[in-house]
Design brief:
4 helices; 91 residues
Length: 91
Amino acid sequence: MKLYLVSLAVGVLVGVIYALLDVKSPAPPVVALLGLLGILIGEQAVPVAKRALSGQPVTLSWFMSECAPPILGAPRKSSTSVPPPETRNPS
């Protein structure tokens, strides 16, 4: 959550700087951002459909662990116990 708040704060700061310099923001309009959100949601329709067609249950816990992270921009929780490369001991 802290990452999102910092991102929002920096965005507001940049917006203020743009306004003070009388520069138009290069950010896409809201309609383009909604289109990008639609793409993210649409990408997750395929795994949901595959799971449903295979007869497996589409539960909220499965959806939150497999589909929500790509939509929300959060990393998926790994089911393996292998540590990330920067924490492994090279031996």
